[in-house]
Amino acid sequence: MLDLKNKQYDMETLRKHIYQVSLTEILMFQKIDEEFASQFILNPDYQLTPEEEEIKMYDVLSHQPHLDKMKLIIMQYTNPTKYKHLNFEVDSE
């Protein structure tokens, strides 16, 4: 299990463990980029708990102030989800 509160992980590691970690904890304790925020944090396909379903763009921008708001908006509404069909068995090992 990843220690999201005390260690920083690259986004590839976070992606590989996406089904084993809380999106809320990623948002609060990890430094992510616009692509990761759009593809995972704001993607309903990965929001598995009621708490995660409540995450909105405002929350992302509040917890990740380094993100470019316009870039995030453009990515959120124009990019197809390239990780939409992650294999749970393979990606959660």
Describe this structure in words.
The chain is an all-alpha fold. The chain has a domain at 18-81. The chain is built from 7 helices and no strands. The chain has helices at residues 11-16, 23-29, 34-41, 50-53, 57-63, 69-78, 88-91. The longest helix is centred in the C-terminal third of the chain and has 10 residues, at 69-78. The chain is globular. The termini are close together. The mean pLDDT is 88.
Compose a concise summary of this entry.
With 93 residues, the chain is mainly α. The chain has seven helices and no strands.
Q: Which helices and strands appear, and what pairs or packs with what?
A:
Blueprint: H1 11-16, H2 23-29, H3 34-41, H4 50-53, H5 57-63, H6 69-78, H7 88-91
Helix pairs in contact: 3-6
Helix content: 40-55%
Total DSSP E strands? 0
Largest sheet: none
Low-pLDDT runs of 5+ residues are none
- H/E series: HHHHHHH
Oligomer: single chain
Given the structure, what is the number of helices? 7
The averaged pLDDT comes out at 88
Radius of gyration: 12 Å
- The percent range for strand residues is under 5%
Terminal residue distance: 10 Å
Q: What overall form do the CA principal axes indicate?
A: globular
Supply the helix-strand structural class.
mainly alpha
